[in-house]
């Protein structure tokens, strides 16, 4: 499978999306950058990475007949594949903060940016971008970030880590068509960060309130139980988990 290694690029997601428009990409084509200079995060945020210390890569996946309304499944399978791959390396205490931050303890270890190419309510292909903090010693400007090195005390080989994550990711994605949405959803819910614990949330208006994460809906919204024991559902821009 094709692996494109770049010494520097603005964003591996952007690069791979552009490449997919001008060439017939082999399924699984992966682009990895030593230095990503303008990494993109979710909801227009930027993604910080340290050259040679972090993993920044994107994987191209083609679908033959996948309904757009099932897109949450792609998010779930990618998050679970990342966790699976980390566990296979002996890394413990990994969870998934909704929708798809990978946590080590209570710090953010990795972020995922999935960008779908769609037509007529089908996902034709997707670019899965993963940024993982690996051998970083500290994050002076990021309060909540953690690296694998900080989490385990060990250094990791970036190439070996990349091939483990990519192999697991592609093998799980290959099984996606055969997976039931409810089984996958239950697996994802099992891994949710701060599930069944009282947490502080902030809504789009800046109000803070206590709630308990109970799970997700079929289309990927977060289900939170309020103090009055009502279950509310939230989309991406509607809620933020504060602790
Ligand atoms: C997030 O948590 O906000 C998602 C971060 C995703 C970052 C990765 S790094 C590789 C790929 N290229 C990008 O520009 N972004 C993703």
Descriptive keywords:
single chain, 243 residues, alpha+beta, BirA Bifunctional Protein, domain 2, SH3 type barrels, 2 domains, seven-stranded mixed sheet, five-stranded antiparallel sheet, 5 helices, 14 strands, 25% helix, globular, binds biotin
Structural topology:
Elements: E1 3-9, H1 12-22, E2 30-36, E3 39-40, E4 46-47, E5 54-67, H2 71-88, E6 94-97, E7 101-104, E8 107-119, E9 122-133, H3 148-152, H4 158-174, H5 181-190, E10 198-203, E11 208-216, E12 222-226, E13 231-234, E14 239-241
Parallel strand pairs: 1-2
Antiparallel strand pairs: 2-5, 3-4, 5-9, 6-7, 7-8, 8-9, 10-11, 10-14, 11-12, 12-13
Count the beta strands: 14
CATH class of the largest domain: Alpha Beta
Kindly report the spatial arrangement of strands forming the biggest sheet.
Answer: 1-2-5-9-8-7-6
Sheet having the most strands: 7 strands, mixed
Query: What ligands does this structure carry?
Result: biotin
Number of domains: 2
Uncertain ranges:
none
Q: What is the helix fraction of residues, given as a range?
A: 25-40%
Kindly provide the radius of gyration, computed on alpha-carbon positions and rounded to a whole number of angstroms.
18 Å
Can you tell me the CATH superfamily of the largest domain?
Bira Bifunctional Protein, Domain 2
Provide the β-strand percentage band.
Answer: 35-45%
SS field, number of helical segments: 5
Which structural class best describes the helix and strand composition?
A: alpha+beta
Distance between the termini: 40 Å
CATH topology of the largest domain: BirA Bifunctional Protein, domain 2
CATH architectural name of the largest domain: 2-Layer Sandwich
Shape: globular
Compute the average pLDDT: 96
Order of helices and strands: EHEEEEHEEEEHHHEEEEE
């Amino acid at each position: 499978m094709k692996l494109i290694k770049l010494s520097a690029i603005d964003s591996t997601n952007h690069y791979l999306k552009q490449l997919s428009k001008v060439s017939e990409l082999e399924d699984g084509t992966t682009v990895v950058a030593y230095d990503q200079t303008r990494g993109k995060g979710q909801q227009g945020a930027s993604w910080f990475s340290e050259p040679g210390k972090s993993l920044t890569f994107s994987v191209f996946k083609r679908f033959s007949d996948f309904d757009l309304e099932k897109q949450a499944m792609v998010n779930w399978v990618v998050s679970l594949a990342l966790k699976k791959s980390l566990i296979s390396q002996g890394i413990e205490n990994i969870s998934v903060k909704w929708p798809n931050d990978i946590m080590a303890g209570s710090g953010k270890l990795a972020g995922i940016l999935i960008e779908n190419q769609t037509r007529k309510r089908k996902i034709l292909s997707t670019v899965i971008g993963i940024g993982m903090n690996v051998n970083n010693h500290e994050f002076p400007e990021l309060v909540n970030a953690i690296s694998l090195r900080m989490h385990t005390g060990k250094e990791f080989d970036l190439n070996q880590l990349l091939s483990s994550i990519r192999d697991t990711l592609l093998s799980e994605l290959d099984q996606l068509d055969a997976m039931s949405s409810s089984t996958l959803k239950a697996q994802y819910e099992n891994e949710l960060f701060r599930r069944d614990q009282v947490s502080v949330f902030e809504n789009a208006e800046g109000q803070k309130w206590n709630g308990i994460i109970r799970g997700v809906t079929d289309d990927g919204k977060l289900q939170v139980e309020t103090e009055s024991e009502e279950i509310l559902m939230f989309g991406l821009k509607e809620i933020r988990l504060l602790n």
